[in-house]
Amino acid sequence: MINDEMPQLAARLAELAEEPAPEMRLDLELGRRLGRSRLRRRRLSGLAGTLAVLVTVGLLGAGLRDRHDGTPAPAVSPTVGPSSITMNVRFGWLPDWVHSGLGYTVEDGRGHASVQMDGATEPAFSLTLTPRGSEPESKYELQDAPKVNGRPAYWLMHESLTAVPDERGYLLRWQVRDGRWAELKTVYLPRTAASERDVLRVAAGMTVEAVQVPLPVHFADALGPVRARGASLIRSNSAGEIHWWMGLSADVDGQRMSVVATRSTHLQPDGTPSSDQIEPSNGECRMVGDVHLCLSSDQAAFRGLTPEEQELIRKVLDGIEVTPDFK
Fold first, then answer.
1. Residues 11-37: pLDDT tens digits?
2. What is the 3-state secondary structure (H, E, C) of 54-92?
3. Which of 14, 67, 219, 259 could lock 226 by a disulfide, CB 3.0 to 4.6 Å apart?
4. pTM as predicted
């Protein structure tokens, strides 16, 4: 499906090291990097990969003034179910230049929404609702921003964002109606008055609500207890070969596994779907209709599969179900 520059699934990267479940995070971060490479190389969605930097500075940080109206927080928690993601934020207004697609990620009980643009390697906008009780990291300097929907807002300034004034992007934090804080990041907008207005308008249009996001791939019931730990789904609205990309981390039969799936219209000369993805040494790949599936075992990431693990991988692959014509 892509050229031979495709990174292998066996690559291991650890970002967000402060979180409590690093083994799962490694898989999702890896999967999202794989997704970024695939989407970038097809000049579609630029999200995938790591979904940029998942900023997790939280509620009522040092120096932020609490002025919310006392409305009880809705009971919305980002979760991963057997066949869907539940998100807690939704984009509203977006600029015309943001048209490629939408992505959602849930891991460790935290949700993250992003939108992409063609040919980009990072999200056009990244949106997170921060958890209660967390504070901004000390590396950020808080600067007053115009109010968002009449509530306090701040620019979070970091030296990496200010090193090159014309390329530093924006990181905005503002208080939502229930008292929590949301964050919006973009790295592509130049520092202009028009760009600032766009960022503030995107923030004002964001809503806190339950968003059910169906997943195109899930494990069959016959496999027994499956604990989904995290998932990413990226849809593309652009003309091109990739329709969607999904990464899923789960515990299956006592083994931590990662699924990467992509639906493509890239065809071989005989008209059948194809992919030139490199098969990981710790897993196996196959085509299911026009969906390319790769399943890997985390325990075997650096040593290859034992015969028993290989047998389990094939059993699980046989039990993975793909939603027909998922769009």
1. 332 333 333 333 333 344 444 444 444
2. CCCCCCCCCCCCCCCCCCCCCCCCCEECCCEEEEEEECC
3. 219
4. 0.70
